[in-house]
Amino acid sequence: MGGNTFDILFVAVADVLYRGGSVYHAIDAQTAFLLALTVLLTAVLGAGLVHRGKRGIGFEGIGILVLYALGVVSLLLR
Fold this sequence. Notes:
By secondary structure, the protein is an all-alpha fold. It has one domain. The chain is built from 3 helices and no strands. Helix 2 packs antiparallel against helix 3 (59-77).
């Protein structure tokens, strides 16, 4: 969780320093998909940390596995 949050600082700095406009306009569709998937996975993890269950694997564990698997399948089908 901390690493993903810290990496956002690099994206922000790259966006400011990139001379060709916004760095988000310079990425391709696959990179944008991976960026969106990473944001979604981090959001599910954050929600799981807020609503932490006392027993077993919570919804975030299952949700992250399902989202990750769907993302991999989606990338393989492209």
